[in-house]
């Protein structure tokens, strides 16, 4: 593979990683520790991710349990969760924090699917932008003949099609997960 295709692939891989991250934040009614990834707790004056302050367990499909290693951080973790956009009320028992994940309503699930479609489209756009940039770079390269440029374009398009198919398959999987009752 050429350097143009390789650079396009790297950019496309980043788009897939961003899509995975965005999908991990979508609540499906199942407990998922990744919903805490974007939440930081003010701990000794420093914003610190919850996962660096506590153990996160999933004892059952609809419950997350956060057990801080330093019990003085319990209140701060609870406040950070309440202030976040999770929409879950944490239960503090003095030792750990329980996050119950209620099953989303039909209407809410449809909204979540719309969010997933938006994230997938953003990934597709990023992939197409990587394709455009790689093709543009190949066309600018004066050492390549016209036939070489056309070969590059075909190779880059092939890789683009593979990545778009990957996005579509990830979206289909996430949509079925969200719509599952």
TrEMBL record:
The keyword Zinc does not apply. Pfam families: RRF. Residues 20-179 form the Ribosome recycling factor domain. GO terms for cellular component: cytoplasm. The keyword Metal-binding does not apply. It is found in: Cytoplasm. SUPFAM superfamilies: Ribosome recycling factor, RRF. Keywords: Cytoplasm, Protein biosynthesis. Belongs to the RRF family. PANTHER family: MITOCHONDRIAL RIBOSOME RECYCLING FACTOR PSEUDO 1, RIBOSOME RECYCLING FACTOR. Responsible for the release of ribosomes from messenger RNA at the termination of protein biosynthesis. May increase the efficiency of translation by recycling ribosomes from one round of translation to another. This is Ribosome-recycling factor. It comes from Parafannyhessea umbonata.
């Amino acid at each position: 593979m050429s350097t143009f295709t390789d650079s396009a692939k790297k950019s496309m891989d980043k788009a897939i990683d961003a899509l995975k991250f965005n999908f991990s934040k979508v609540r499906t009614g199942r407990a998922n520790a990744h919903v805490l990834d974007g939440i930081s707790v003010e701990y000794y004056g420093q914003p610190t991710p919850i996962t660096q302050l506590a153990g996160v367990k999933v004892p059952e499909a609809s419950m997350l349990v956060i057990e801080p290693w330093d019990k003085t951080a319990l209140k701060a973790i609870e406040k950070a969760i309440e202030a976040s956009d999770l929409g879950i009320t944490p239960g503090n028992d003095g030792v750990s924090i329980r996050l119950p994940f209620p099953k989303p309503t039909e209407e809410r699930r449809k909204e979540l699917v719309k969010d997933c479609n938006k994230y997938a489209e953003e990934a597709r756009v990023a992939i197409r932008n990587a394709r455009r940039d790689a093709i543009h770079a190949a066309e600018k390269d004066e050492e390549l003949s016209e036939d070489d440029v056309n070969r590059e374009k075909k190779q880059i398009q092939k890789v683009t099609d593979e990545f778009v198919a990957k996005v579509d398959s990830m979206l289909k999987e996430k949509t079925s997960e969200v719509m599952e009752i």
